What does this fold into?
Amino acid sequence: MSDIALFDSHCHVDFHHFDEDRDAVFERMREQGVTRVLAVSVELEQTPRLEALVAARDNVWFSVGVHPNHEVDVEPTEDELIRLAAHPRCVAIGETGMDFFRHHVDPALQQTRFRTHVRAAHKVSKPVIVHMRDADEATLDILRQENIAGCGGIMHCFSSSWSAAQQALDMGMSISFSGNVTFKRNDELREVARQVPDDMLLIETDAPYLAPMPMRGKRNEPAYVRHVAECLAEVRGVSLATLAEQTTANAMRRFGLS
Ligand SMILES: [Zn+2]
Ligand SMILES: [Zn+2]
It folds into this structure.
């Protein structure tokens, strides 16, 4: 057992990658002091699976939303998002945002989808989980236009500049770092992470993707968020206990948990 309590604010533990050993994954997580996770949606067909996951565990919450670069037959509507988000353990809308790294989904459609999510989030007063990849300007513009400050949100797997971070922070967004902050070449990203205010910092794995050092290349899992926390503690010059305390309190506050 561990004496710290970390919150993995973004992972995909319901994915098939964990079907063979999900219980063991949760056990290893507990051993590493990772006491809570948010299981994030990428398509609405996933919602029953997420509902089943949270019904079986008291330390998992979930979100509803459709990933910006995920091809779907039917676009999500505001009403559908609002209806699904009514579940008592649904604490966020997303992941949504803009992603120009790959063009599976047309940018114009991504933009419409993103706006739909933010509008639904306003109606249900839940934060928005924002995925921003190679699309800083487009993402930040929409956040501004849709008044994200009204419902708040999280820049997940943040990997952009300090200027982009500042713009997001000015809108009241939390900044969440994942495994890529631990990668050797990412000095610049660590410098961004050093500057994020104590009360706006979150940590995540985005498991099964993007395992942190020294697990890089393996399947990621929530237990490894500890490596992200250790890296950020070092960068920010605080103890792991302090970093854990801050980021867990931030996640609880952001997701409206007590
Ligand atoms: Zn993402
Ligand atoms: Zn994700």
